[in-house]
Each structure stands twice: as C-alpha cells, then as structure tokens.
Amino acid sequence: MDTDGPRGLRQGAAGPGESTTAPKREVDVALRHAVRSPGTIVVLEHVSRILRDNPLGDPHDRKVAVWLPPQYDSGGRHANRRFPALYDLVGFTGSGLSHLGWKPFSENLAERAARLVHERRMGPAILVFPDCFTRLGGNQYVNSSAIGRYADYLTREIIPFVDREFRTLASREHRGCFGKSSGGYGAIIHGMKYAKYWGAIADHSGDAYYDFVYRSDWPNTLNELDKYRKPARREGAYNAARAAAGLGDGRDDGRVRRFLEAVWAKPKLSSAETHAIMNLCMAATYDPDPRAPLGFRVPFNLESGELIESRWKRWLQHDPINLVKAHARDLRTLKGIYIDCGSKDQYHIHYGARILSRRLAGAGIRHRYEEFDDNHSDIDYRMDISLPFLYRALKP
C-alpha cells in the first residue's frame, strides 16, 4: 500500500505520452544510514494512449517516479554520463510510489539503492517506479482484455518516455526489471515474452506453480463471494444440481459483480476480501473473455466449488513453470536471471521457484537461484543481493 512518499508533480498541459517541461528535481532522499549524497527523486506525469479507455476505467494519466543516483548531477567531465536503468515492478496492491515512502526500522528502495552505491556494492543506476495499480488491486504486468494492456504500457510507452527524459543507456543491454510477488512474476514473464526490451531480470518470490499458489486459496474466495449470492442461502432442503446449473462455464451469476461493487465502496478491506479480489484479479489476467460478464471467467463453479478443467487450463498456460521450453531462446539472450524465495513462503511459492529453477537448468538457461530462511512478507532486504546482481549484468 502507498505510504507517505513524495508528492506528484503536474508538468502542465502535455500531449499523450509526453511532458511539456524538463524533469523537475523534487526531493533529496533522507537516508537511515549516513550517506552524503543520497540522490534525487523525480516525479513526472505521463499521459498514456495505451491505458486510455481501459476496461476498468482506471486513470490513464499516471505518475512515474525516477531515482537518480548522486553521480547523475556530478558535473565536470561526467556531465553527460549515461546510466543503466532498473525498473521496479511492485507487488499486488502496490504502485511505484509506494516504494519511496518512509519505512519504520528499514529503508525505502531509493534509500537502499543510495546505500548500495555508497558502499560500492553496485555502481550508479537509474531506478524507475511505474504505477500499474488497477481497481482489481493491481495486475501481472501482462496484456489483458479485462484489465488493460500493461505489458504494452511498460514496454511501448514508459521505457521510451524515461529514455527521452533522462540520460539512460537506452538499449536492452543496459535495462533490467525486478520485483517481488506479482512484480517477480512480471519480471520473469517479461524476461520470457519481452526479452527484446530487457537485458536482465530479478524475480523475488514470483508467482509460480499455480496448483499450489492459487488453487488451494479459491475455497476461501468462494466463501467470500457466497455472501453476495442471491437469493441468500437458507437452511433446509438444498437442490445441489439446480443450484450449480449454468455455472459450469465460469460465468458470474451476479455475486462477483456485487462483491466488487461492495468492496470498491468500502473504506477498508478485510484480509479475506483482499485475497478474494486478488484471485478475481488473477482470473481477469489469466482467463479474460469479452463475452463473459465483467469480461472474465472464474475457474470454479461458484456454487458447487468444482474445478472447471477448461478454465483452469487457461491459468496454467500463464504459469512460468510451463513457459520455460517455449521461451528458452529468449531467456538465453538475457545477461542475467536472478530468482530467490523464502523457504517458509506462506503461499508455497518456494515449491514453484524450485520447479522453475530446475526447468531453467534443464533447458540450459544460466540463472542464479537462492533460498533464504523467511516467508513472503517484508523481504525487500533481498534486494541488497538482486540490485548489485542486475547492475553487474547491465553495466557499460
């Protein structure tokens, strides 16, 4: 979730995809560690053509935050120096600016990068923080007819926009992306399907092995959606066949719509509601269907809870463990692939990460895989390893 980060800057009237003025330097980063030159955060406004008229009605006018290392404004003979660019793909319910807010007992990502540069554990790089939040809590950084074309938004709009506004080394050999959870999924998927834009990727606890990660959580989501069933459930005789009839194709009978309308109107979501909207977001990502109510289908009969094999098959087609063979050639072109996961991940993602690593190795794809003694939550400290890894792979 967003914290108290830097305020957005409006650049004035701008054409789609362009700002009308040069980037304005906004705020120096106050570091928890004693670093003399913490770098600079810039927040620009980008007007997207690609996100205009997206299916959820989400804003197409988005803020893009950029962290510039201290060396960016060092002047002298380095005045025209160009830098590698690292794109931060945040996890579900996050946006780019959420990684720049104050954090208790820790560092935000700009502070972390400044410290790593100061300690010479990595060289100077530009960090980019795009905003890809949606009414469904986020997306998986792919194109979906039910959510929007967020892969195209990143690759065809944000990358050129950043390269125009800042002194990046504007080629895929010097550009990488990284993220955790949904952001980790986005990183590995972009390494597979959009390798012409990225030279290296880092995947922290990215979604993989959907039979473990998602399938086991759907009963909880069905229970939450059941609160919005009409007519409401009653005690007594129950005709199971009639109740489940017509729901075998994954269509909404109205309870999904009513659930979404209810949570969109709430000032606060419960944990169960957050997980339910997450699973619906995944359904909209992995099984969009413009002919279906809300533009997507769910993989279970909403009434009986029976798995709909044809719909679940659509999900599995997006599972990274099933995509290695088809995208092995593109993955081999990357200069670096870093993957890690906590061995106590509460969503069981460590099993998917192990399968992914094994299949990468089986396809002859060089990568680095690590596990650590932790779960899925609050693991940004692992970026102390991934950011230097990416810099080494992408440095000039």
Protein structure class: alpha/beta
Helix content: 25-40%
Query: So what's the CATH class of the largest domain?
Result: Alpha Beta
CATH superfamily of the largest domain, please?
A: Alpha/Beta hydrolase fold, catalytic domain
* Largest sheet report: 9 strands, mixed
Quick summary of this structure?
This protein is of the alpha/beta class. The protein is built from twelve helices and eleven strands. The longest helix has 16 residues, at 150-165.
Mind explaining what this structure looks like?
The protein is α/β, with parallel strands linked by helices and 396 residues long. The chain has 2 domains: 260 residues, 3-Layer(aba) Sandwich (Rossmann fold), CATH 3.40.50; 105 residues, no CATH class. It is built from 12 helices and 11 strands. A 9-stranded mixed sheet has the order 1-2-3-5-4-8-9-10-11, sandwiched between helices. β6 and β7 form a beta hairpin. α5 packs across α8. The longest helix has 16 residues. It is globular, with a radius of gyration of 22 Å. The N terminus is likely disordered.
